[in-house]
Amino acid sequence: MPETIYEHIDTKQTLNRVKEERMPFDWSINPYRGCAHGCSFCYARAFQSFIGRGAEDEFQHHILLKQNAPDALEGQLSRLAGKFGYDIEAMRRHIGQVTIGTATDPYQPIEAKAQLTRECLKLLAKYRISTSITTRSPLITRDLDILTQMKDISVNISINSLDAGLIRRIEPASPHPQMRLETVQKLAESGVHVGIFAAPILPLLTDSEESMDALLSAAKGHGAAFAMVSLLRLSKDVKAWYMGTLRTHYPALVEDYAELYGQGPYAERQYIDMFKGMSAALLRKHGLSAIPGEGEASGPVSLKGRIPGSDSITPPGSDSTLGSIRRTPSPSVRVKQEEIQLRAEQLSFDF
Length: 351
Known about the structure:
metal ion binding, 3-stranded mixed β-sheet, alpha/beta, 7-stranded mixed β-sheet, iron-sulfur, Elp3/MiaA/NifB-like_rSAM
């Protein structure tokens, strides 16, 4: 495995306005560029082209630390406060929601040492900014002293499967799924509004009714208030890397993915519609809201008939061009048992 390089850079601004109207937040903060978790499907790999880099190994083995991110954020927030006559409540309403971790994991291993996310979080708490955080890492519990004091905070723990062996192949350096569930529980017990991002759900790997039902049941059982579910999106750069991962670990699926994603970055329409029906039914079954901040979904409900023409939840793709392939195939490369055990070193990698 290549040695990871950590490079310190300066940033002109930490708080970046989100111009995409479909996004449920107004500003984003990403204290790092690149991510050591190395998820093969990560959409942020495509952003490497903005700085003349590729979506391959460099994304996870050359991490840029925005060393002045807290200072730049302090400057931005101070100037905004001045524009509002230091009326913090008016400024807070103007800013809306800030989301940390839209293009990197803000609690990837280097954060244990660098503490850039923690220092930015202190400033958002100081100015009482509505904040959302997305991460796969239990390291976020280190900052409970700040999170529990924030007026408007929501945490999204990303987890798309309980299958530790599959996770280790597709997300080679990310925390064990059980550690993520325990993080949900610890945050919830501390009074932090927390849920999961079941994303991305991977066709033919993590999209079965059984897999989704187990995941949402576990999330609810550990205190999740909501669960946002979304399917895999494959941009051109990310697609090449992800397909390479499939060829290594699940070669039998390569042809099916080529067909399912043959028209662009999204799966075929029929598959998407069927999957949406199944996931909506499962969210209702477990009483989970699909949107952070909304009340719990009414439930439990019967799952029969949720997809037209079925007596139960139809597995996505069963009537699509994918044919009858429904089971996750055995990997061509076996993973040693010790590689999928709970590992405390996920919080303390060597830097």
